[in-house]
Amino acid sequence: MGLGDIIRLEDVTAGYVVVKQGIKSIAREKRVVLRNINLRIKDGERVVIIGESGSGKTTLLRVILGLLKPFNGRVFVIGKDIYSLKWRERVKVLRQIGYVPQDPYKALNPSVKVGTILEEPLEALSISERGSRVKDILRLVNLPENVLNMYPMELSGGMRQRVLIARAIIHDPEVLILDEPTSALDVSMQAQIVNLINEIHRKLELAVLTVTHDLGVAQYLADRAVVLYRGEIIEEGDIDSIIKNPRNEYTRLLVSSY
Ligand SMILES: Nc1ncnc2c1ncn2[C@@H]1O[C@H](COP(=O)(O)OP(=O)(O)O)[C@@H](O)[C@H]1O
Ligand SMILES: [Mg+2]
């Protein structure tokens, strides 16, 4: 690992172009979801983005993942301005991101066996290298080898989440990004997944960006926390000081209800 930023957003304003169907006309309209976002994630750092539902968390991740070009501003991944790169180069840079999408029940293709799901990001390796990498990662995420022959439907929510995490880290990315990794799981499973994420952070020495609406989860997963409110960053800093001494009105409300 070198020093520096894995991810850097500069003055990003982003959202969607929505189509409005009128009686006589169709109009395209910009819906701004994120405003003036500045964000840095350093090598090996654990950052949590806290925000209520609809605040723009998933939209922010889409921007970072190269899936949603901002209206304004720039997005750097390992120092490269991703939206100015040619497609092939962009794909290469974005391989440095491992991504765990929001809902473990929807995120896995039900007709593909776990073994195939995990080998897919490893197409550059030989078959025997793939096999040993898959075994190592299964051990790390604490899944038995017999899941390789199973379909996602045969797995519990917690096991699916472990499969998704395994898939995200199997090709050894520089940063792991998780969108509400615990919100679909029951409480006992939530603690296990949080512990697993921290164990992965320690062992693989990667940066971890987690999005959550849960302050408890944030407390366990953040070196630094960023509070997103209606598409703007309203507060950021050390998670314990934010909880002890929130400066912003909305953060205070969030902390008092926690
Ligand atoms: N594909 C889309 N087209 C138009 N608006 C969208 C789209 N996806 C999300 N939005 C809107 O963007 C806002 C933020 O959504 P999202 O980023 O999913 O929030 P969060 O993940 O924090 O719950 C919401 O108002 C939502 O309705
Ligand atoms: Mg979301």
Topology of this protein?
Elements lengths: L4 E17 L4 E17 L3 E5 L6 H8 L7 E6 L2 E2 L5 H8 L2 E4 L13 H6 L7 H14 L16 H13 L5 E5 L7 H18 L2 E6 L2 H7 L2 E6 L2 E7 H6 L4 H8 L2
Parallel strand pairs: 3-8, 3-9, 6-7, 7-8
Antiparallel strand pairs: 1-2, 1-4, 4-5, 9-10
Helix pairs in contact: 5-6
The protein binds adenosine-5'-diphosphate and magnesium ion (MG).
Adenosine-5'-diphosphate (ADP) binds next to strand 1, strand 2 and helix 1.
Keywords: ATP-binding, Nucleotide-binding, Transport
Pfam family, one: ABC_tran
Organism: Desulfurococcus amylolyticus DSM 16532
Description:
The model has no long low-confidence stretch (mean pLDDT 94). A hairpin with a 4-residue loop joins strand 1 and strand 2 (26-42). It contains 9 helices and 10 strands. Helices cover 34% and strands 29% of the residues. The radius of gyration is 19 Å and the shape is globular. 36% of the residues are buried. The protein has a domain at 5-96 and 173-256: Rossmann fold, CATH 3.40.50. It has a 6-stranded mixed β-sheet with strand order 6-7-8-3-9-10, with helices on both faces. By secondary structure, it is α/β, with parallel strands linked by helices. Helix 5 (157-169) runs parallel beside helix 6. Bound molecules: adenosine-5'-diphosphate (ADP) and magnesium ion (MG). Adenosine-5'-diphosphate binds at residues 16, 18, 31, 33, 51, 53-59. It holds the Pfam family ABC_tran. Residues 7-255 form the ABC transporter domain. Keywords: ATP-binding, Nucleotide-binding, Transport. One of its GO terms (molecular function) is ATP hydrolysis activity.
